[in-house]
Amino acid sequence: MLNHVLRRFFQAFLVLILVALLIFLMLRVVPGNPIATMMGEHANAAAIERMTSELGLDQPIPVQFFRYILNALRGDFGTSYSMGKPVDRLIRTAFPNTLILALCAALFAWVVGIVCGTISAVRKNSVLDRLFMGFSLLGVSVPVFMAAMILQYVFAYHLHWLDISGVKSWKSFILPAVALGWNSAGSISRLVRSTLLEILQADYIDTARAKGRGQAGVLIFHAMRNAMLPVVTMMALQLSSLLSGAVITESIFAVNGIGRLAVQAIEGRDIPLLQGTALFSTALVILGNLTADLLYGVLDPRIRKEVVR
Amino acid sequence: MRNILEVRHLCAGFPTLKGEAVAVNDVSLTVPEGKIVGLVGESGCGKSMTARAVMGLIRYPGRVISGSILLDGRELVGMPKKEKRALRGSEMSMIFQEPMTSLNPVMKVGRQVEEAIRIHEKVTAEEAARRSVEILTKVGVPEAKKRCLCYPHQLSGGLRQRVMIAMAMILGPRLLIADEPTTALDVTVEAQILQLMRTLSSGGTGILLISHDLGVIAQLCDHVYVMYAGRIVESADVNELFDRPLHPYTRGLLNSVRSLRGGGDVLDTIPGAVPNLTRMPAGCGFSPRCPERCDECVMDVPGLVDMGNGHLVRCRPAEGEEAK
Ligand SMILES: Nc1ncnc2c1ncn2[C@@H]1O[C@H](COP(=O)(O)OP(=O)(O)OP(=O)(O)O)[C@@H](O)[C@H]1O
Ligand SMILES: [Mg+2]
Fold it and tell me: What is the ipTM of this complex?
């Protein structure tokens, strides 16, 4: 088991290095001198050259990359050009907002998704089932920015229950979390419903009922545990995409998180910052996948056994 | 002798586009205390459906249409769900056809075995665990304590089937329904499981043994019901049935087994197949395949007639023959 975990960690680390290389190369093969682009049209040649050597960009690319990785391992991602602050400090101040937003969105998605999916499966084809599945279809098909604007319109502009944007208190996270989590809630409730419906047909469900389990007992002790296998995997994967995919939501609701930072980096042609945020988000996704993988192993004894071997 | 189970004129079926498909048609059968009663018939003739009807576990959208099911004198048809649930697992239990998929894959074997105790009795965890080890040992699971900590996929087919039996037996039910308990097993394991059934029934449990293997039925049962296309077509004590099979279908079944055992060149099979439930022939369901069919057979369904010795048969030509 430990062996397996270590191997997975090592694989994840390799993927991370590879992705770093990709991001690094992509930002360097864009045509034109990035420093010139960064400093704008009016900078003179001498200043550009000075900046280039200051950032080490006159070195050969392998050297640059090696140095970047070494520094990154020490937590140094360079200095943001547009904000004049170390990239790691910027990320560190932005991350809590992203994390809170993602966790709230995930919590919303999981609770709503599991509850609605379960009710839908148990009361298949009822009015509630149709209602929930309608909402989840909306969730998976309406783009985040639409959902965000609808929520802003209804709850902030029209009902005045919540602020339109900006972070003032915990309440400020409600609308963005719902906007961001709606999509996940939709896919989770659909997955829970279809998985449960399939599992409720399984032979071991009959066995449980033959022992005298009632509907609730069958659901809690037998169906849910089995249904959770694919659901937990999906949840872990979603958490990582919620953490890294809040660019639009953060911008619309003016939440100062990683996503917004990345947008600012692009706008400010800020290569160190862009590189840092991209790498950080990638790391989150890889971590999410790793967690999903390991969780599945813990939850499913059949896999656990293979792992032990 | 007390009758643990009395099924009277049971009909059960599924709604289909062409109306209700009646999979169990006017079935009556009796399982006395301490006896093993066989239910035989080809695949799809309604054996499992009958068993599920007794347990109250017919899958949606199937249902019991009419008839009565008495468990130790209590009517099960129309009994409130909660009362029925209290009987399942304690008074009556069932071993399902598929030992490979009938155990929960993510629950330890021990917990699954003791589950019935936890549902029906108030006992401590230690007591429940102790009793599950005890019953597993009794049904011949070696190193039962260790096996309790296993997951189903870590056990062989034979062990899983024993676990299923242990699970069904743990509260000492009055009625045990065993749906093809040995189909998935090899011969030695089968013999052990059958021996186990014998022991159980000598302890007073009434067993309804479903099988399409006449060999198993001959070894084990006291009384046999032969089912065809949803109906009981013949019923007799086991020796009577094997010595004097009256229904052409029963004879066909016996002949096919004998030709298998005898190692003859030609396998004696019954030509044709079980009719589709929604396209039942008029009259006797077996008539399209019957070598002894006469004009009357296709007119209407013959009744079950007592031919003496409690030997019942649903066949006009057979009645006529005996009368001669
Ligand atoms: N969900 C369903 N919908 C419609 N018909 C069904 C359904 N389940 C079973 N049947 C039909 O009911 C009939 C009886 O099925 P049953 O499972 O009782 O057969 P069986 O005698 O147990 O056969 P086997 O030996 O294969 O187990 C079959 O003709 C089958 O096609
Ligand atoms: Mg069956």
Answer: 0.89
Summarize pLDDT for A139-184 with one digit per residue, the tens.
Answer: 889 888 888 888 888 888 888 888 777 777 778 888 889 999 999 9
Mean pLDDT, to the nearest integer, of B243-271?
77
* Residue at token pair 């065809």: B228
Query: How do strand B63-71 and strand B36-40 relate by DSSP bridges?
Result: unpaired
Distance CA A221, CA A109 (A): 23
Lookup result for tokens 């468990």: B71
**pLDDT value of residue B297:** 86
Architecture of domain A87-299 in this structure = Orthogonal Bundle (1.10)
**How many interchain CB pairs under 8 A, A with B?**
80
SS3 percent helix, strand, coil of chain A, rounded to 5, is 80, 0, 20
> How confident is residue B263, by pLDDT bands cut at 50, 70 and 90?
low
| Residues having CB within 6 Å of any atom of ligand 1 | B 14, 21, 23, 41, 43-49, 59, 62, 97, 212, 277
CA dihedral B171, B174, B179, B183 (to 10 degrees): 70
Closest residue to atom 17 of ligand 1, CA basis: B48
The b/e string for B221-241 (b: 16+ C-beta within 10 A; e otherwise) is bbbbbbbbbbbbbbbbebebb
Residue A197: what are its φ and ψ, rounded to 5°? -60, -40
